[in-house]
């Protein structure tokens, strides 16, 4: 991949981040709500503050957060802060910074996304390859069918069904939360086991509906590859079916799967955000939901930009990795 292509990819990445930043800045300001006024309004209702004192506090906080400046001045200051990766303070959780809010939530989301994405991709790819391989046993090819049927079920619906049947009816797994009430997070095996048990239902909500997508795409590629000359040549050479399946069949069908993985990253992230709220996990989704409810502009900016930049970086990384996997698309 030459320098021109790299520069084009980086320029497109910068354009995506700028566009997302601009949209995120202006959309929350369409709301008539004022997070600072709402917070101090709650203090006023508890007593101890006169209306005049409240107004002075509101004016002081708006000045501190720069909300008293013209909108375009706020916008340019906002872009400058993004370049410095400084998202400021949370309006609803002051004096916490936006970075602190994100850092508290990110590990939960990354853990859930990493496990579910890898498992669904690996399971779906293997099942799809087996489903299309004519020499595979019939019972093994039939395993992929239930996952294909679940493809159209959204993760939120899958989560509700799992909560009702597995958690509520059968009482096999916890209904929600990151860990049991009363436990203090630590590095013990007991806490780790409890943590894993609480992650099973959220993970299944994301995995069950996404495996079928990888099965279908891999199965389609596998059927296409069966008639290729290099597969027929390998068979006539007398190579074992296992080697043909591994080196000639799966290896070549896997390349489009990587492209599909890049395109699916955004869907996976947004699905995880919704599932986190359903199961009460303290991840990015829950933090974003609380920020939207409180009309907390800085936290909304920070989280949405964090998600956007993370997705854009992953797609950029996959674009650089893909020529390594497939030498045919390398640009000299």
UniProtKB/TrEMBL annotation:
Entries under SUPFAM superfamilies matching the protein: MetI-like (SSF161098)
InterPro entries with a match to the protein in the record: MetI-like, MetI-like_sf
Its membrane topology: Multi-pass membrane protein
Top-rank lineage group of the source organism: Bacteria
Subcellular location per the Swiss-Prot or TrEMBL entry: Cell membrane
Pfam families to which the protein is assigned, alphabetical: BPD_transp_1
Keywords on record: Cell membrane, Membrane, Transmembrane, Transmembrane helix, Transport
Membrane-spanning parts: 6-27, 112-133, 139-165, 172-190, 196-216, 253-279, 299-322
Domain named ABC transmembrane type-1: residues: 106-322
One annotated GO biological process: transmembrane transport
Keyword Cell membrane on entry: yes
Entry GO terms, CC: plasma membrane
Chief location bin: membrane
Family: Belongs to the binding-protein-dependent transport system permease family.
Protein name: ABC transporter permease
Organism field: Devosia pacifica
């Amino acid at each position: 991949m030459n320098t021109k292509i790299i520069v084009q990819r980086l320029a497109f990445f910068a354009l995506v981040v700028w566009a997302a930043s601009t949209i995120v800045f202006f959309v929350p300001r369409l709301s008539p709500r004022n997070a600072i006024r709402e917070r101090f309004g709650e203090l006023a209702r508890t007593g101890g503050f006169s209306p005049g004192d409240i107004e002075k506090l509101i004016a002081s906080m708006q000045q501190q957060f720069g909300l008293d400046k013209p909108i375009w001045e706020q916008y340019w200051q906002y872009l400058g802060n993004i370049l410095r990766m400084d998202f400021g303070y949370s309006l609803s959780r002051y004096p916490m910074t936006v970075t602190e809010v994100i850092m508290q939530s990110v590990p939960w989301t990354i853990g859930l996304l990493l496990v579910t994405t890898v498992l669904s991709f690996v399971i779906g790819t293997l099942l799809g390859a087996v489903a299309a391989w004519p020499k595979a046993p019939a019972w093994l090819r039939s395993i992929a069918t239930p996952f294909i049927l679940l493809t159209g079920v959204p993760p939120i619906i899958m989560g509700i069904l799992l909560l009702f049947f597995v958690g509520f009816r059968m009482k096999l797994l916890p209904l929600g939360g990151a860990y049991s009430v009363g436990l203090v997070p630590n590095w013990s095996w007991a806490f780790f086991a409890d943590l894993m048990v609480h992650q099973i239902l959220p993970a299944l909500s994301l995995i069950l509906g996404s495996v079928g997508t990888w099965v279908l795409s891999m199965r389609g590629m596998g059927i296409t590859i069966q008639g290729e000359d290099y597969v027929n040549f390998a068979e006539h050479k007398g190579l074992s079916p296992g080697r043909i399946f591994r080196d000639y069949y799966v290896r070549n069908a896997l390349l489009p799967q990587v492209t599909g993985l890049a395109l699916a990253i955004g869907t996976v992230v947004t699905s995880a955000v919704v599932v986190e709220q359903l199961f009460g996990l303290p991840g990015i989704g829950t933090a974003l939901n609380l920020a939207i409810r409180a009309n907390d502009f800085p936290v909304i900016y920070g989280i949405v930009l964090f998600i956007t930049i993370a997705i854009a970086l992953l797609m950029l990384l996959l674009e650089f990795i893909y020529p390594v996997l497939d030498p045919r698309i390398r640009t000299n």
